[in-house]
Structures are given as structure tokens and as C-alpha cells.
Write a structure and sequence with these properties.
Bound molecules: flavin mononucleotide
CATH topology: TIM Barrel
CATH superfamily: Aldolase class I
Helix content: 25-40%
Number of helices: 9
Number of strands: 16
Largest sheet: 8 strands, parallel, barrel
Oligomer: single chain
CATH class: Alpha Beta
Distance between the termini: 14 Å
Strand content: 15-25%
Shape: globular
Number of domains: 1
């Protein structure tokens, strides 16, 4: 892609962000965003020499398959297409049933679930930035028990909806406890561990930034989960993605997903105050896409387990790029904020792209980057 088209695409992605159910307490309007300038100079590639990406980790689902075959099968998870709505941007799924045909998506990941109900941080907790969004929702959620009793039965009434539960805690025991509660619910396809949380029994260092802590929490979660697969969602706020990907794989993860949000902040020069009440927040959206893509590429070449890619995906072409980088499936997050139907539109866009490019099976694209 030329430099000019990059600029155009980036500008078109700067769109107004719509409030979502779980962001209801956030201030209504964020200021208009600036456009993004071209970087003056390109840094030399820091990438290590890479080995062949593991293409065999994901396969088409034999039960499906009209042309183009968008189905994906990995780690015991069967998806009709690779597009999954990301955690924290799609509520508990059921809130979207009137605007999105949930059964047309590859699946969705629930808002992060904890042992107990959590109220989250005070507002302001969302702020729109140049081509991105800052959030510090504070992991507000209804708790695992309420999810099983109130949301899951409604999701179960809908046919063919793939539910992945995002799980977090502040100790290994928290993760185990949440998973054991969720094990009581039927119809959950997999657990995704949010390891970007402070470990309170280790001085607040996040699980996802220390390979030893990461391995420990994955082993605990895996034991608790029984036959349900564990997807470990890596934090991008680390010096080496391959190292953390290896740690997750060594501990028995069935797949990894990346990236979570980048630690960031914004200041209002007029008031001299932080834009977010928590001061520090997480950056997401198109602004992070090139970094996320690089991390997914690195991870896919580092491990043999499937990699789910996310970070700034808002178009069908974005999905194809992540798959060429080595992702077996993708997630769409912040795009849901400016268009709640984004996931469904992206599925149709991927189908059209495959028809136009005569791609019979979407799995053929995985790791297909030509260098
Ligand atoms: C408002 C908001 C809430 C989020 N909540 C969670 C969460 O509960 N658990 C989690 O693992 N990730 C959470 N995320 C991170 C997203 O799932 C995703 O990893 C990140 O936003 C990057 O993808 P994107 O650029 O497509 O949004 C949240 C993101 C946003 C914007």
C-alpha cells in the first residue's frame, strides 16, 4: 500500500464514537479528532528472523463450506467465520441482539467477568483521541454468577451463537473461582483470560507482564476450566511479545489473543486536568493497528498454538492483513463504538473480498504474508 493510501485510510477511520451499554456513565461527547500525519522517517525493522508460521493450527470447519468457505476450526472451537466481537465493546452480547444478527458472527467475547459485581471507575472514563480511544472503565461488570443466571439463558435461546467468556481477577484464586462459576453455565465455548490486571499478591505487577506470573495463572485457569479451551489475551505493554506468547503456550494455553489496550493518557491543556478520571487509561482503535499487527506477526511466528489478532480492526481488509500476518481469527473492538453493526458488516466485507480475490477457503490466507 502506498503512503498516500495509508493516509487516506487513516483519515477515514477517524469517526465519531458511539456510547455503548457498559460505557453509559461516560461523558456524552468527545471532541473532534485530529488527522494523523505521515511519519517523517521509518525506523529500521527490529524484527528477528522468523520461522514459518504455524498454518496447521487452524483448519476449515468441515461441517460448513459454501464458497467462499469462511469457517475456522481450532483448539476445539468452531467458528462460521473468523470475526469475533472483542471483550468490553459488545456488552454481554445479548444487548446487541436487536441491531446485530449474533448468529452471523464468528462469535463474541463477553465483557470481563469477575468473582463479584464491580462498579468500575468514576467518569470521565472514555475519551476519543486521534484515530483512537482511551478508556478506563475499571472492569465494571455484573459478576460471573449474574452472567450465568441472567445473560447466558437468554443467549442460549438464540441458535448458533458462539459465546466466549472473558475472565479476570486479582489473584490466581480469583481466576479459578470465576471459571468454576462459569463452568456451571451451559453453552460457553471457551474462556479468554484478561491478564492485563494487577496481581495484588505480587505488589500489583500485572499477570501479563511477567512470564512466571503468567504461567502460574494460566496453569491455574487451565486446571479449573476442564475441557473448555483457554485463550490467553496478551498485554501489549511488554518488551517481548514472543517471550510472553511462549510462557502462555508452555503453561498449556490452547490459543492466545492479542492485543489488549496500550497504556496511555490524555491531558486537557485548558483545565490542566487529565481527560480520564483514573489519569492512566488504555488506548485502542485504528491508532494502534500497525503495532498490533506487528505483535500478532511476531507471536504467530513464536508459538505453535493459534493466534487471534486484534487491535484497530475496522474493515474487511484489516481482517485479511491480520490473517496474512498469521492470525487464525480476529476480534473487533473499538469499531463497535462508532458503528454497532461493524462486526456484521466486516463479515460481509470479508466474504466479498474472498469472492473478488477468488479465495476459496479463508484458512488459506493464514500466515500468507509474502516477504
Ligand atoms: C471500553 C473498552 C472496554 C474493554 N474491556 C475489556 C475487558 O473487559 N477485558 C478485556 O480483555 N479487554 C477489554 N478491552 C480491550 C479490547 O477487548 C481490545 O483488546 C482492545 O480495545 C483493542 O482492540 P480494538 O482496537 O479493536 O478496540 C476493552 C476495550 C475497550 C475500548
Amino acid at each position: 500500500m502506498s503512503a498516500d493510501s495509508t493516509t487516506t485510510r487513516t483519515k477515514t477511520k477517524v469517526k465519531k464514537i458511539m456510547p455503548q451499554p457498559e460505557a453509559a456513565a461516560a461523558p456524552a461527547a468527545a471532541p473532534a479528532t485530529a488527522t494523523v500525519n505521515q511519519p517523517a522517517a521509518q525506523p529500521e525493522s527490529p524484527l528477528p528472523a522468523v520461522t514459518q508460521v504455524n498454518k496447521s493450527a487452524a483448519r476449515p470447519n468441515p461441517a460448513r463450506g459454501p464458497f467462499p468457505d469462511l469457517s475456522i476450526r481450532f483448539s476445539g472451537i468452531e467458528l462460521k467465520n473468523p470475526v469475533i466481537a472483542a471483550s468490553g465493546t459488545f456488552g454481554y452480547g445479548i444487548e446487541f441482539e436487536d441491531i446485530v444478527s449474533l448468529e452471523k458472527l464468528g462469535g463474541f467475547v463477553s465483557k470481563g467477568l469477575s468473582r463479584e459485581t464491580m462498579p468500575g471507575n468514576p467518569p470521565p472514563r472514555i475519551f476519543e483521541t486521534a484515530a483512537g480511544m482511551l478508556n478506563s472503565i475499571g472492569l465494571q461488570n455484573i459478576g460471573a454468577r449474574a452472567f450465568v443466571e441472567e445473560k447466558l439463558p437468554l443467549l442460549r435461546k438464540k441458535k448458533d451463537v458462539v459465546v466466549i467468556c472473558n475472565v479476570f481477577g486479582y489473584t490466581r484464586q480469583d481466576y479459578e473461582a470465576v471459571i468454576r462459576i462459569l463452568n456451571e453455565g451451559e453453552g460457553i465455548v471457551a474462556y479468554e483470560l484478561n491478564v492485563s490486571c494487577p496481581n495484588t499478591s505480587h505488589g500489583g505487577i500485572t499477570f501479563g507482564s511477567d512470564p512466571v506470573l503468567l504461567e502460574e495463572v494460566v496453569v491455574s485457569a487451565k486446571n479449573a476450566a476442564g475441557p473448555r479451551p483457554i485463550i490467553v489475551k496478551l498485554s501489549p505493554n511488554v518488551t517481548s511479545i514472543p517471550r510472553m506468547a511462549h510462557a502462555a503456550e508452555n503453561a498449556g494455553a490452547d490459543a492466545i489473543s492479542l492485543v489488549n489496550t496500550f497504556v496511555a493518557m490524555a491531558i486537557d491543556a485548558e483545565s490542566r486536568k487529565p481527560r480520564i478520571s483514573n489519569i492512566i487509561a488504555g488506548l485502542s482503535g485504528p491508532a494502534i493497528k500497525p503495532i498490533a499487527l506487528r505483535m500478532v506477526y511476531e507471536a504467530a511466528h513464536a508459538v505453535d498454538i493459534p493466534v487471534i489478532g486484534l487491535g484497530g480492526i475496522s474493515t474487511a481488509e484489516d481482517v485479511i492483513e491480520f490473517m496474512l500476518a498469521g492470525a487464525a481469527a480476529v476480534q473487533v473492538g473499538t469499531a463497535n463504538y462508532w458503528d454497532p453493526c461493524a462486526t456484521e458488516k466486516i463479515v460481509e466485507g470479508v466474504r466479498a473480498w474472498c469472492i473478488e480475490h477468488r479465495v476459496e477457503r479463508i484458512t488459506d490466507l493464514i500466515g500468507g504474508l509474502e516477504t
